[in-house]
Amino acid sequence: MKAKCYDLKAEYCGKSNDVESPSWNFNKRLAHPTSYRGREYDYRKNLDALYPLIHDIIRELDSLTGRHFRLRFEGPTHAPTLFWA
Questions:
Q1: Is the pLDDT of residue 78 over 60?
Q2: Residues 6+ apart with CB under 8 A from 13
Q3: Of 14-23, 41-50, 71-80, minimum mean pLDDT range
Q4: Could you give the CA distance from residue 17 to residue 21 in angstroms, rounded to a whole number?
């Protein structure tokens, strides 16, 4: 589990000044009012990069707890219901 979380952190953070990293995009375009923030932005590229890692962590939690967590986001081929309808 620790390794999976490390992989997620590495993919999410990237380099702090890397405009392609998910953390840069979420921080600059969503979380903080900056000059990069606009009316809209397609976050699918960032979500697509993170989804497989998040999915692996959820499956690991399934196996550790013996429970099945229902996924609301079924992957890059489906619209993520958590973020938009």
A1: no
A2: 21, 23
A3: 71-80
A4: 8
Q: What is the mean pLDDT of residues 9-20?
A: 84
Query: Is 85 strand, coil or helix?
Result: coil
What's the pLDDT score for residue 53? 92
Q: At what angle do helices 2-13 and 44-65 cross, to 10 degrees?
A: 170
> Which strand (E) or helix (H) includes residue 22?
helix 22-26
**71 and 58 in contact (C-beta within 8 Å)?**
yes
Non-local (6+) Cβ contacts of 51 within 8 A are 73, 75, 76
Q: 72-80 contacts: CB < 8 A, separation 24 or more?
A: 73/47, 75/51, 76/44, 76/47, 76/48, 76/51, 80/44, 80/47
